[in-house]
Amino acid sequence: xxxxxFRQFQNExxxxxxxxxxLVASVxxxxxxxxxxxxxxxxxGAWLSILGLLVVxxxxxxxxxxxxxxRLKGFVPAFVAIFALSVLCMLLSGIPAIKRTGFESVxxxxxxxxxxxxxxxxxxxxxxxxxxxxxIKIGLVLLGTxxxxxxxxxxxxxxxxxxxxxxxxxxxxxxxxxxxxxxxxEMGVMLSSAVSICGVSAAIATCGAIKGxxxxxxxxxxxxLIVAIPMMYLMPYLAKLMGLSQEVxxxxxxxxxxxxxxVVAAGKFLGETAETYSVIIKSSQNVLLGVAAFIISIYWSVxxxxxxxxxxxxxxxxxxxxxxVVGFMLASLIFSTCFDMGxxxxxxxxxxxxxxxxxxxxxxxxxLETDFRYIFKAENRRYIATFLIAQCFNIIVTxxxxxxxxxxxxCRKRNVYRHIIVxxxxxxx
Length: 429
Fold this sequence. Notes:
By secondary structure, the protein is mainly alpha-helical. The chain has two domains: about 10-145 and about 340-375, no CATH class; about 150-285 and about 380-429, no CATH class. It has 21 helices and no strands. The protein has helices spanning about 5, 10-30, 45-65, 75-95, 95-100, 105-115, 130-145, 150-155, 155-180, 185-200, 200-210, 215-240, 245-255, 260-270, 270-285, 290-305, 315-320, 325-335, 340-370, 370-375, 380-429. Helix 2 (about 10-30) runs parallel beside helix 18.
């Protein structure tokens, strides 16, 4: 094969995708060598796991940088320093008093990066490793390992139906609202995905799909996490006030609260059944992430040719298409078809640890790349207003859908089952 053939793969899009798939392959082939991501950092074993994760992340990231034809002399120490900052953020989020508030490590990662950038500035020696999009794309490929077809089936018909109805109706409403509020299309797409699908992960995936501005992504992530905290406490209270059943309440919480951790915490306030239903619904919406990213990628690729002389030929569309989507879908396909649910979950937990590392490093970089002057621009008021209005719409629509499916129809379904059991027992007698 000619050098020109291989040269087409020598770009960040392809290299990040290949590095992500390399990590996926490592998890499958060498699971015993992949460090487990620790829940707390209060033991020697936990710190050894962190050190192991550093080694794996550094080796893969450095290999990709080298394949891009760049030197590693400055990259290695800079990456280690950024990784150390991300670990500090994990420690902060693990403090019991902070943990109870619902603030996750990703919030502190962005905040710490912002603090450094807007006080002492971005140190020149850190610059070689400040590559937020590169790390995000690697993490997004790993995200595919957690999107399992079996979970879609486990969610049941009602869970899948709620996910489809809520995601598409809320997404379209938010996108329409963003246009009415004169929000630029790039931010509008990210806000729409964040509100309708699964918050932070959806915003990250969408940003990757449209090759969006990391500063805008930082803003969306921050507002998602800040709004999720009061919702985590307020919505269980409202569910009790309205007298919702645990099934309906759980479906409502899972379909509206944007972070999985906050969903679980909110469900616990109401009971085990509510917690189970909230996680099922959140999972059913999360699995739509890949579908949404694929559709958005196609739309954005076509849109990207509309104002140029280039015709939207298959070749042009493929060149513009974000390659991480290919890696994401491939990882999801492998984990869904080649392993049973138990194996896929076990291997997926290892991949999740690597993904958390890449995302944490990425968000420190986003903070380091972002000037406060952008965050406090007057136009961002429109972004906040759009998000809050869309979230209110999401809360109302999801409540109606959850009540119809898990309340009214669910009750009718249970009554039918009771009649069948009674008739069966009667005929048996």
